[in-house]
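Researcher: Let's try something more involved. This one mixes different molecule types, so please make sure each is placed in the same coordinate frame as the others.
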Amino acid sequence: MSAAAAGRRRRARRRRRRTPAWWLGNLLLYVTVVGLAVIFVGPVVWGFLGSLRPISSGIGGPIIEHPLQWHNYARAWHYPDVNFPHYLKNTVFLTALATIPIVLTSALAGFGFARHRARGRNQLFLLMIATTFIPFAVTFLMTYFLFLQIHLINTYWPWLLWGLSGNAGMIFLFRQFYMNFPSELDDAASIDGCGRLRTFIQVYLPNSTSILAVAAVIMGVGWWGDYIWAQLLLNDTQTTLAPKLASGYSLNPGGQSIASIPLTLAGAMLYTIPPLVFFFLMQKKLARGIVTTGVKG
Amino acid sequence: MATEANARSAVVTRKPRRRASFRRRETLAFYGFVSPWLLGFIFLGLLPIIAGFLISLSNFNGLNLRGYTVGGVHYRGAHYIGFGKYVRAIHDPYFWHSLETTGKIALIVIPLGIVVQIALALLLNSGVKMLGFWRTMFFLPFVIPVVAKAFMWKAITDQDGGLLNRIIGFAGGSRHIDWLNGHPTSLLIMFLVWGGAGLGMLIFLAGMKSIPEELYEAARIDGAGRIRSFRSITLPLLTPVLMFQVVTGMIVVSSMFQEPLLLSPNMQAGLGTYVPTGTHVFNIEALQQIMVTGDWGYGAAEIWLFVPILLLITAIIFFSGKLWVYSGSEQYK
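Model: All components are placed in one shared frame. Result:
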């Protein structure tokens, strides 16, 4: 169906339906959409409003409490007890250490599954799908045990190892994407004397930026937000923002702990900004990537 | 003679051999490309699973891997003790209670989450303007780190002046509901449905977009209304996506460690944090048996009792698909 025909049909439908019932239906639709959007963004806005309250107060006061305490953000950044910049640096480093290799090795494995015939390939593929059904509980604590035995606790090696071993879900994503690549690309590349790895790097990777963006956002956001591994594997100076912020900003460091809700919320907001910016930068590519992959049961 | 035979055999076998070497190179390339994942799975997936099983049969407590001597008395290291830990777990009401909690949460979160996701996808698929903007709004929670989300929800459900209590108070209810301690399950359910809706909505939306427009047109000509079209076209053709989302939901709920911890009333104690019984899911039970009590053998045994139950449920759901997942035409699979 051509775009022009679709447009004509849409116009025709619109003419046909401009009745009071149409207006009412449309009104109802937009009221619902706006209402739901408010519910979904509500917690973020409420958290933001909370972060602008005086540091020793709760959530109690009026909805917008004047004067707004904008310097809560500067305080959350400079707070001696938390050392936000230091843990931000750790978080950035660990996220990159895991995400960049994960995306690349997953793409490579996806390319392997999609474009190579080899004995055992289908069995391996089934095995890979099956691994996504392994409950996290089985591997989680025992991986910790293993890292304990080989002395990788309090190091960043685990993140690199996870990165290098890719992610089954992402491999599946890349495989589906590369299956739809025209195979003439491979033939042309191999006639030009391109080896397989070079074909992947010079032909496949540059043509899959949208799906790379999808994988980078899913994995990057996941590792940025990871709390449990950082809490389990890293000591207090090496850890990331997640465990550091999870215990909250204390108003009375060292003594009886009194958490400051506004400061904690300000810290949480600062912690949210980088993935949000990353997401908005990637958004155009992301929408295209999700449409082209199209999850099919 | 010999050289001639060699030459002939060389001529005869040259082509097949070249093909074979091509196949071999392809195989080699394949295994080269998937080996990072395969090695990762063996060492970071399979090995921990085996280690966990061995630990579940031992009296390992985190410190006694090797034998040690204190004050002249020798203590034996961790060793095989049979299935004692399993027997203990089967008779442990806390273990069963944690399974029950996990099941209850899954039974509410998965259907409720799917209904919300389908509703959002339908709304966005109905020709609404500024599609990208609304999609971003609904997807937003996915991007926010879980720790930050937990604090936002603690602010929403704050006992003194949280938004939820203000709304309930405005509607005539109690203004001082203690969500964190009194209704932790409801809080966790709201949190999970809210946080998971965006991704599920995108998946359902992609599924809806792949349904050919002609089907709806034909239905319209046959006099079907919107509701009828949804029931007879959209829903049946979405059943594969529905199955995918049910199974994904199972995996998500059974892999939940962070959310119950972070939504507990006081997070000061890290992994040893007290988690209210309403959100004391299986994972928290096993985690705290190992990390707080130090009874690795017992925690591992609990995990190894949980896994078959979980796999059985997943398998039942998966095979029930024969009854309700549409697979009539290859085209729409």
